[in-house]
Write a structure and sequence with these properties.
Keywords: Membrane, Transmembrane, Transmembrane helix
Radius of gyration: 16 Å
Structural class: mainly alpha
Order of helices and strands: HHHHHH
Protein name: DUF5134 domain-containing protein
Organism: Kitasatospora aureofaciens (Streptomyces aureofaciens)
InterPro entries: DUF5134
Distance between the termini: 8 Å
Strand content: under 5%
Number of strands: 0
Transmembrane segments: 58-89, 101-120, 126-149
Shape: globular
Number of domains: 1
């Protein structure tokens, strides 16, 4: 992206860590086995969620560091194809529809940012904003609201106790990626 270099690297570190954790979770145990309410309760849906979150975390890290040096077609394939798959899956399977739509919105937002960034001369801007302000604003509202919601869920469980240990890690990853997406959109 085109923020300060230190911010880009910190964002990359944060999202790469979240993506790597999701990848590890995918390899060992899906998030559904951690605790009720931490993610999808259907094991195949949980594995799908882990894979989507790993892709998004690692993809956000790569985009924050490499920016417009990667061709738009690569970013469009990397995020556009999963977005289409999530949209189709959400239309045809009622189980996990909201979760799949969230992943579709995230993948479409990544595609949008990549295409806007690569369309700009040099991948950076100085006088004008990248992308469509209305769409950017809508995505900022969505991911800002999602981050607030995910943060509230991380802090409290229905029983009113603080979530500790590995039970809260999937929620913390989702919060991290929501904040990361918000930060990337904010720099557009």
């Amino acid at each position: 992206m085109h923020g300060p270099t230190l911010v880009n690297w910190l964002l990359a570190l944060l999202t790469a860590t979240a993506g790597a954790y999701c990848l590890t979770r995918l390899r060992h145990a899906p998030c559904a086995t951690a605790a009720p309410g931490t993610g999808p309760t259907n094991p195949p849906l949980a594995r799908e969620s882990d894979a989507a979150e790993a892709l998004m975390g690692l993809g956000m890290a790569a985009m924050a560091v490499t920016g417009a040096t990667v061709p738009a077609a690569v970013w469009a394939c990397l995020f556009g194809l999963p977005a289409a798959a999530f949209l189709l899956a959400a239309l045809h399977a009622p189980a996990g529809r909201a979760h799949r739509l969230h992943h579709a919105v995230g993948a479409l937002a990544m595609t949008y940012m990549a295409l806007a960034m690569t369309a700009s001369p040099g991948g950076h801007h100085h006088a004008t904003a990248l992308g469509t302000p209305l769409l950017t604003g809508t995505l900022l509202l969505y991911f800002g609201g999602y981050s607030l919601w995910a943060g509230a869920r991380l802090l409290r469980t229905p029983a009113g106790t603080l979530v500790l240990g590995t039970t809260g890690l999937p929620r913390a990853c989702r919060l991290t990626m929501g904040i990361g997406m918000f930060a990337m959109l904010l720099t557009m």
